[in-house]
Amino acid sequence: MHPVSHTASDADGGGPLSRLALGPTGERARLGLLLVSFALLLVVGLALPHAAAPDLGPRGWAPGTLLPVTLSPALVTAAMWTAYVLGAVGVLLAVLGRGTELPRSFVAALAVGAALTAPFGSGDHVSYAAYGRILALGDNPWLVSPVTWRGGSDPVVSAVEAPWTEEPSVYGPFATIVQGLTSLGGGDNLRQTVWLWQLVVIASWLAVRWCLRRVLPGREGRIDALWTANPLVFSVGVLGAHVDLLATALAVGAVWAAHRYAGLGGAALAGTLAALAISSKFTYAVVLLALVVAFPARRLARSAVLLAAAAVVAGGLHLWAGPHVYDQLGRSARAVSLATPWRWVFETLGGDLDARRTVSGLAALLAVGFALCLWRVVRPAHAGLGATALTGVAVLTGAYALAAPYSLPWYDVVVWATLPAVVAGVADLVLLLRLWVMSMAYTPGRVLGMTPGVEDVTMTARTSVAPVALLVAWVWLVTSAVRGGSRRRPAGPPRDSAPRR
């Protein structure tokens, strides 16, 4: 690997953590931690099916298992936890330091490594394949549950794992169309279908990096430190093959389009990409709000075109999909994760439907409060539209991830895609604690394949340790905001404020 290069602009001059920049020894230690973390994660993905990775059946023309070794549930859990600890420390050192720009060869190696693995950390990718298969063969994945479709005998759809066998799709029409296209390419073979979906996810991960490097010139090191070389994001997002990567790439692409093209055409393109993000996962609607706020007040026409394009594209997709697209969304919105402090509130209130409604209402209020706190403790790195919009997305999605009653580690992917736009500060630390805690809590991630001993240990981490740690993150954010945030004028010159054509 070629030596990494420091980018002078990556030092957040005047930022609250800039005085803690690492020396050469600290930087070497950081890179060593990251390399070990990535290696452990790739070993987990390259091994035979195990407690974190479902069996995808015959490989067909897709990559097969490269490491013909069987990892026990305990070994898989230990490897993932070790990788997450080392990776979190590596990211922490990057936040405290200046960040380094990765050589292209290293980024390419990570992408190739991801393409050779089998997804792990959940069984969601099997559900994606099933919903795409149902759509590709002419049925409605928002109405039909996998266990009932064609008598449960289909070679792809029948592989869906508990607890999702009876659940129709909760994903938006655009994501489901992409899943349908991968199903057409993969045919009757589950491994082939999943591998094509993995390529979509890897391309989305690379696209986010490409867009960020153009929206945030001079911050390549921080982009790579928080996004590209973040083992936690790489594991839960890329190696987990989650749809959140596709939605994140579309959201960041919308910001890039508005930043790159100053006219109404840029606003239309941004609105289109934002609509596709929303039509993948509804929570990504925040990108529209962030862009409207970031547009200059005198450019009302741009905001109007942005919203009109988003309405036309998203509306057309939803009309095509039918009225049942988000039937499952209301149910999932009332769910309460075991790993959040809300579980205590839910159980204290009786654990019934009224308790779920109360928790949902309180969480919505807390999310607003967290957004105000984050807005107080962050500041954009540049004064231009791109950095301002990305900062807005980081604040809104970060507040949602922290406050949501039902939350999983891959919900944080969009947060870390947009954090490079802000000056290093306490928000990085709070959100790193949140991502690390949730990644540890949802290891190995499936409800199948664990021994009783491993299940006891992981459930203790999920139900007892994680809620306390997340409560610490809540208190840390609020007290930091109350003591006085760092929000001042943007750091550095307004590099991206001039129109780009």
From TrEMBL:
It comes from Knoellia locipacati. Pfam families: MptA_B_family. Coiled coil: none annotated. The chain crosses the membrane at residues 31-53, 73-95, 102-121, 194-212, 232-258, 264-292, 304-321, 359-378, 385-408, 414-437. Keywords: Membrane, Transmembrane, Transmembrane helix. This is DUF2029 domain-containing protein.
